[in-house]
């Protein structure tokens, strides 16, 4: 996973946490849920990048 990808995923995660917190503080359930969804999307992207990295590492070891 590239540094730019890691930074973007972290920014998405933090943005999601902020939305969730603001939604919780203001009673805006939609905003809170949107924040949670943003965090899940960030986690899924991160997992996908880790799988790609592992596959690349495995390929390098086999060649």
Number of strands: 0
Which word captures the global form?
A: elongated
Succession of helices and strands = HH
Give the integer mean of the pLDDT values.
92
Q: Structural class, judged by helices and strands?
A: mainly alpha
Percent range of helical residues: over 70%
Estimate the strand proportion: under 5%
Radius of gyration (CA) equals 16 Å
Distance between the termini: 20 Å
Could you explain the architecture of this structure?
The chain is mostly helical and 63 residues long. 92% of the residues lie in helices and 0% in strands. It has two helices and no strands. It is elongated and about 55 Å long. The mean pLDDT is 92.
Based on the model shown, name its key terms:
2 helices; single chain; 0% strand; mainly alpha
State the gist of this model:
With 63 residues, the protein is mostly helical.
Topology overview:
Layout: H1 3-26, H2 29-62
Helix pairs in contact: 1-2
């Amino acid at each position: 996973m590239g540094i730019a990808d890691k930074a973007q995923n972290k920014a998405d995660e933090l943005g999601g946490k902020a939305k969730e917190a603001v939604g919780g503080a203001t009673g805006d359930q939609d905003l809170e849920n949107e924040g949670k969804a943003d965090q899940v999307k960030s986690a899924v992207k991160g997992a996908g990048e880790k799988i790609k990295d592992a596959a690349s590492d495995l390929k390098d070891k086999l060649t």
